[in-house]
Amino acid sequence: MVKQTKNTSKILTELLKLQIGNITERIEREGQTVFGGSNLLESDEIADLCIQFLQLLVALLESRDPDDDASPQFHALEMFFNNLSKQILVRGGRIEDLVRYIQFMQHTLIDALGEDEKIKVDDARTILLYLSSLFNELILAVFQAYLSEKERTIWAQEAELRETSTPITEIWDGVLTLPIIGTLDSSRTMIVMDALLNRIASDHASAVVMDLTGVKNIDSQVSHHLIQMVRAIQLMGADAILTGIRPDIARALTSLNIDLDNVTTRATLSDGLKEAFRRMGIQVSHKAA
Amino acid sequence: MAIPGLHLTQIGRDNFLLEPSRSLDISIGDELVVAILQRLQQAKAGTLYYDLAELPLIEPRYYRWLNMLARACRAVNVAMVCIRMQPTAAFALSRYMEGVPDFAMGQEVTQ
């Protein structure tokens, strides 16, 4: 940050203390406009955060080295904005509004500086540069918090998607079904296989029926992944049954020279289940009239 | 007679369970195959269960050794079944293997 002198820190601290009422009132009013109207923050919360901000700023200015961005005082201020950013985002607020609010805080301090006629030009220049540098750092902290929160949300959404994209169901003791919908790329195959193989091990499944009714297109890579999945299932000592292969996919498989000799296929999921039951010696029949 | 790196146990009338240990040295795979087959033939074994529970990964060399042992077993009329393969091993093996292995696969000893 821009080097502060002992004198300029003192001037800024005194200014804050002298005009605390005016500064607080202005920042608070702006807070009510930005966050109060959209019900993002309660009036009490806005008042509290305004007081907390000014206290933390004074603590930084009164610290041994106000320019040290590794000091606990600076870290406290950074964390304050970091938490505020998360709070606003969680409540559905916009990052732009928060940044504008922080800029408003900076402008309010600069305005207060302009109202004090005793401050020398050189001191005012140093203070201005310091405030600009400080607020830049704080805005950066807000953006960092915003990005990490966004990343966390995206990661959580991906995890949920992964969970829902592999709906492995134990439809009978030892019989697992896995409907595959959409495209099977390398990363999805890895996720599906990982989940499936672990389920086979944990459930001691002896048959897996993989239904491809929801697979629209197939290319050589996807078919290779399918064969790989079938092999892995067989290596675990379970039977793999492919069902629901659409006519156009069957045609594509023949043109890709995919060897399905060791793969059991059935037309529909129902046929696949019947085959799995037959292999396990289970008979399902209509109730006698 | 003990076979180095392998623990071979008779489990039932004509079934054998083979449990590899950490000290298994497949660079002497030919000698191990001969030693295993001798034991199996002496006991008139019908099925050899190869327990893979302790192997989190099966690399190509180990896979070739398993296939070789399975083919040799078939030559003396013994069926080889690999059991309790771990998901990680199945996942990795399925990525590089081509065609069907020479051994059967199962989850547990069935007979």
UniProtKB/TrEMBL annotation, chain A:
Q: Which residues form the STAS domain?
A: 165-276
- Keywords assigned: Phosphoprotein
Q: Which CDD domains match?
A: STAS_RsbR_RsbS_like (cd07041)
Which source organism?
Sulfurimicrobium lacus
- Superkingdom field: Bacteria
Q: What is this protein called?
A: Polyvinylalcohol dehydrogenase
